[in-house]
Amino acid sequence: MRRPRATTAGTAVLLVALGGAVTSCDTERSQGAEKQSTAAAKHSPGPKLALKHMMNTYYLPRPTASDTGNRPTDSRPTEYKVRLTASKPPPGRDPLAVKNVKVTFDLSAVQDSATIHWVNKGYGCARSADSLTCAPGDIKEGEGAEFTPFAMESRPDSAKGPAGPMNITVTGAGTPAARHTTQLVIGAPVLTARQEEKRTDVKPGSELRLKPAFGNRGDTDIDDDLLVVVQADQATLLTRYRNCRYDRAAAATKAVCTVSGPLPAGAAYETDGPVRAVTDKTARRGRISYTVYRAHDPQDAGLLPGSAPRGTGPLLGIRRVDGSGSTFTTSGHWKAEMATGELEFVTTRARDRQAPELTIKGRVGQVVDVEVLTPDPAHQGATRLTLPEGISLVGRRDGDPSELLFCAYGDDENGPVECPAPQMTSPVLRVRIDKRVEGAQGSVSVPSGPSDPDGDPDPENNTAPIKVEYLD
Predict the structure, then answer these.
(1) Cα–Cα distance, 43 to 24 (Å, whole number)
(2) Which of 6, 147, 222, 412 is most buried when burial is the number of CB atoms within 10 A of its CB?
(3) What's the CA gap between 139 and 381, in Å, rounded?
(4) Pair 337, 299: CB distance under 8 Å
(5) Which residue has the higher pLDDT, 224 or 378?
(6) Neighbours of 424 (CB within 10 A)
(7) Are 243 and 258 in contact (CB under 8 A)?
(8) What is the pLDDT of residues 150-188, one digit of tens each?
(9) Closest CA to 456 of 386, 376, 385, 387
């Protein structure tokens, strides 16, 4: 009888010992894993540099027959942009910096066709013979540098067409070199886009249809497909076309559509089907805009990933139109890279004068500024306020900027407070919380638009409360 008891006790001691050993092993494994993780972080590859969204084709406009001298009067030198990034650090390691970063441009193949117009010395850019080198400084992991190192222009005697490659090399201490090649072309496309007439009295929640249209007024064809990037503000896009990617499968606000090229010089097209958008039910005004890019050089298009939802309907194609009219315009300096058109709309809610709900929040004795921000400042008139009990008006003080608008008493200082119509800024209600009055409430009201022949569609929201929230 004693032996079993002794054996049981011994087993218990053994189990306790084994439990301690297991715990010890687990701790050692955990510490070992932490050491391995730390060691891995210490010995992980260093930061890598990369060139992002770089030009694949660099077009230089040619001087026209009417130009004189070496500087064309109707074509400015074309800037070249560099976007440089450093890879992110691995988890558990502080960011390192790539030291002594340099960006070198080999111009040997193009120096007979183009000249450097100016060099950005602010980024340490300097030219030596047939190369140009910039020194943007140290770049930390996860960060980058974006700058314009130079601008080029074509030589007056340069032949139209491909002029050769411009090779770019990025180096830094302890990191592999990054490279990119841009093909220089003498001559340039000039992308245009059609501007649509503003649509007014649009019913909120209704459908708008827009056919993007674009042309090429330059002297050089675009031998490439085109990207049409559509964005909706205060509206959502219907996900219709299968050659379009959308930011969401339903109620999308952005679409990236690839349409077949080429786009010859002198030609213009519009899409053979409309982009369809539904205006928001609360929208007062908004726009449907589109930007056209060369597919191989989207630049700042903000492309959607390949995994983005696609439409399930037909392909969005294009058909020839006359692009010579004044409605087809360029997008400023970036004539070869992109062109943008838009459809602006105003809904019937724009006539709705709506009073804003205001809350005065602060401690007793405190002076508080409250911005009187109306739903549609561009078409909102003056407002009239009745202050809650225990609140007094302070208004403008000496030294306040003259461009700021402040609410003030009208003719009678015991009467209502009036706030001017918004201009560059919204008016400010400056008050003092004199005493605590539980449940105190004032009101703010806006008049209906007397000049609007159709009147205010919802006069019931022309008055709103002014509440007080006391802070201890």
Answers:
(1) 28
(2) 222
(3) 51
(4) yes
(5) 224
(6) 8
(7) yes
(8) 999 999 889 999 999 999 999 999 999 999 999 999 999
(9) 376
Q: Is the backbone peptide bond immediately before 314 cis, with ω within 30 degrees of 0?
A: no
At residue 306, the 3 state secondary structure works out as coil
| H/E stretch holding 3 | helix 2-43
CA distances to 60, 158, 168 from 165, in Å: 13, 15, 10
What's the predicted TM-score (pTM) here?
A: 0.72
Give the whole-angstrom CA distance, residue 431 versus residue 445.
18
pLDDT at 64: 66
Residue 49 pLDDT greater than 90, yes or no: yes
Q: Cα separation of 442 and 467, whole Å?
A: 7
C-alpha 132/C-alpha 127 separation (Å) is 4
Of 161, 343, 194, 210, give the one whose Cα is nearest residue 268: 194
**Residue 163 is inside which H or E element, if any?**
strand 161-172
C-alpha span between 4 and 12 (Å, rounded): 12
Tokens of 432: 């003092």
Check residue 429 and give its pLDDT.
95
Cβ atoms of 198 and 68 closer than 8 Å: no
Residue with tokens 């990054």: 178
Please name which of 464, 284, 204, 456 lies closest in space to residue 353, comparing C-alpha atoms: 456
Name every residue whose Cβ is closer than 8 Å to that of residue 155 and which is 6 or more positions away in sequence: 70, 112, 113, 114, 115
Question: Residue 337 in 3-state DSSP?
Answer: coil
Structure tokens at 418: 């009036």
Residues ≥6 apart with Cβ < 8 Å to 119: 125, 126, 127, 132, 149, 150
Helix (H, G, I), strand (E, B) or coil at 9: helix
Structure tokens, 119: 């060099």
SS3 string, 360-389, reads: EEECCCCEEEEECCCCCHHHCCCEEEECCC
Residue 297 is given by DSSP the state: B
Token digits of residue 146: 């974006």
